[in-house]
């Protein structure tokens, strides 16, 4: 049981001038249990920029206790610290204290060896912070930040500034900077205790409690800033389409695509802090809705869980519908062919350069975009769906394979007891996603004369054609439902890719059931794939697009 503090922590504020004066005197120390420095040059610059603009930078936590004489380092700053009974050990805030000291107390900017993450200049024209230029010397109106903390040092630099008479506003900007830095108040707690274990517990809880913000939460805060419109609210609204839950990470990729950015990379390196993306999020919402409606009505993809690689397929479709919100019927047909032809070649698993090549083909001209997209997917050398036994199939690692799942749902499977058409969205959200094994591998009665060893039995029964899309039936297995009298109607059986002959094979236990099911489902898949890809038909654009206006002759 951790011991309680005998004295309440002292709350106080340190001006940066006072805090760094304590650093110079050797009073501020870093405990051994602190983590190593992890901040980047950008983190350091952002902290100093926040101080200049008066933004909060968080609260420090110090542990007050004796500190022995030591050589102390804060980035490039080295302090020969004497022993003191008033040592302030930074329990929380090491990175911030080191950044402030490293920049404002930096020993020298004179040569390349001194160029590090703490080497910053303040542009007196734009009032922005910059690292040193990669080549050459900085412009004369760039004020070294290690001249700012000390008033005399700053005045000495300004007296030597060559443009002080031509640009008096530069002098005022420098004085404002110095005042803002020196007088900035940093809130802090100071804890008095002799028990280092207590401090370790405090440190652990400060640094592990809660959870870090996700990329999506940071994006909302920086670029949207509205509770009524955020990535979360958009994904919640999209659920009404019955397509499943769109992850916020997927929506964020779509936002980047709609804005015309590289959706295969993070947004942090592509957006500026002053960008405002509220309208972009609205446009993404509309385009994403159009893309989902297209997938359900035109491409026969009823749910997100049946959509291959949505991080590519759905994002690129969203980009298309953002540019072409009302494509012609012919364009929708060609778009569906293009979508399915990509599935033939690996199910939309694209490397970033490949995804960006597709992205670049989607332009403001609807017809030309589609022709370019279609040209990127030539006919396959072998149509795997026409091969007996389907030896090759995309997404074959899942059972049944994704393409066969979609083809099975195209039969509009019905409930074996009520006859009602099943709702794919409802079942796909359940455990197992609605696809249930018919012949259970561990059931001894399914050992057949064709497959005597258990390994072969398991392979057969976990195979492609041993699944039924159906909800669980309370108190009975699906086999018991199928074997019950009277048997399901032919219409019900057909909706599941079954026949009366296959059902009779189940009852006789003659080992022919899976072969009979395969004989039904293979033609279903072939017909479905041919209807979706239509490689044997012309991909011409709409007739309207080929009509030449007399005025253009």
Question: What's the helix and strand layout?
Answer:
Elements: E1 10-15, H1 16-25, E2 28-29, H2 41-53, E3 60-67, E4 70-74, E5 77-81, E6 84-92, H3 94-104, E7 121-123, E8 128-130, E9 142-144, H4 151-160, H5 168-183, E10 185-192, H6 196-208, H7 215-224, H8 231-238, H9 248-258, H10 278-297, H11 310-323, H12 329-344, H13 352-361, H14 366-375, H15 402-409, H16 424-428, E11 435-437, H17 454-461, E12 467-469, H18 478-483, H19 490-494, H20 500-508, H21 513-533, H22 543-546
Parallel strand pairs: 2-6, 3-10
Antiparallel strand pairs: 1-10, 3-6, 4-5, 7-8, 7-9, 11-12
Task: Put the structure in a nutshell.
The chain has 553 residues and is of the alpha+beta class. It has 22 helices and 12 strands. The termini are far apart.
How many β-strand stretches?
Answer: 12
- Counted by DSSP, the helix tally is 22
Q: Mean pLDDT across all residues, rounded? A: 86
Q: What proportion of the residues form beta strands (DSSP E)? A: 5-15%
How would you sum up the major sheet? 5 strands, mixed
């Amino acid at each position: 049981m951790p011991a309680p503090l005998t004295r309440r922590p002292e709350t106080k504020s340190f001006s940066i001038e006072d805090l760094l004066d304590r650093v110079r005197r050797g009073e501020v120390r870093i405990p051994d249990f602190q983590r190593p420095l992890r901040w980047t040059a950008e983190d350091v610059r952002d902290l100093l920029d926040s101080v200049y603009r008066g933004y909060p930078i968080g609260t420090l936590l110090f542990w007050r206790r004796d500190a022995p004489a030591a050589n102390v380092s804060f980035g490039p700053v080295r302090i020969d610290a004497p022993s003191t009974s008033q040592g302030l050990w930074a329990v929380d805030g090491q990175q911030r204290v080191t950044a402030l000291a490293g920049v404002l107390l930096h020993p020298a900017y004179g040569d390349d060896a001194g160029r590090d993450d703490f080497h910053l200049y303040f542009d007196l024209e734009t009032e922005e912070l910059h690292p040193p230029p990669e080549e050459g010397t900085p412009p004369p109106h760039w004020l070294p930040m290690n001249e700012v903390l000390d008033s005399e040092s700053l005045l000495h630099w300004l007296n030597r500034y060559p443009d002080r008479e031509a640009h008096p506003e530069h002098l005022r900007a420098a004085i404002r900077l110095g005042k803002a830095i020196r007088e900035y108040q940093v809130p802090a707690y100071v804890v008095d205790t002799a028990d280092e274990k207590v401090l370790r517990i405090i440190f652990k809880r400060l640094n592990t409690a809660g959870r870090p913000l996700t990329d999506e939460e940071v994006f909302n805060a920086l670029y949207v800033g509205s509770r009524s419109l955020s990535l979360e609210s958009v994904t919640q609204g999209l659920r009404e389409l019955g397509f499943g839950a769109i992850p916020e990470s997927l929506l964020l990729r779509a936002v980047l695509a709609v804005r015309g950015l590289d959706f295969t990379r993070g947004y942090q390196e592509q957006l500026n802090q002053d960008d405002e993306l509220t309208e972009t999020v609205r446009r993404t919402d509309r385009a994403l809705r159009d893309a989902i409606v297209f997938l359900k009505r035109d491409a026969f993809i009823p749910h997100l869980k049946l959509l291959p690689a949505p991080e590519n397929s759905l994002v690129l479709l969203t980009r298309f519908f953002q540019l072409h919100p009302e494509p012609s019927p012919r364009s929708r047909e060609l778009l569906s062919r293009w979508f399915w032809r990509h599935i033939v070649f690996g199910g939309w698993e694209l490397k970033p350069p490949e995804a960006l090549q597709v992205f670049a083909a989607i332009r403001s001209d609807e017809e030309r975009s589609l022709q370019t997209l279609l040209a990127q997917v030539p006919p396959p050398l072998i149509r795997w769906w026409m091969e007996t036994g389907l030896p090759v199939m995309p997404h074959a690692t899942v059972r049944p394979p994704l393409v066969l799942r979609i083809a099975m749902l195209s039969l509009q499977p019905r409930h074996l007891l009520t006859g009602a058409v099943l709702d794919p969205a409802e079942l796909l959200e359940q455990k197992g996603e609605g696809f249930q094994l018919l012949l259970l591998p561990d059931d001894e009665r399914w050992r057949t004369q064709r497959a005597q060893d258990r390994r072969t039995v398991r392979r057969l029964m976990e195979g492609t054609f041993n699944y039924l899309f159906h909800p669980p039936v309370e108190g009975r297995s699906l086999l018991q439902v199928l074997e019950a009298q009277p048997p399901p109607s032919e219409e019900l059986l057909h909706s599941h890719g079954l026949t009366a002959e296959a059902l009779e094979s189940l009852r006789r236990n003659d080992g022919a059931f899976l072969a009979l099911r395969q004989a039904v489902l293979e033609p279903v898949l072939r017909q479905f794939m041919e209807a979706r890809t239509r490689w044997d038909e012309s991909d011409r654009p709409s007739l309207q697009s080929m009509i030449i206006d007399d005025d253009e002759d």
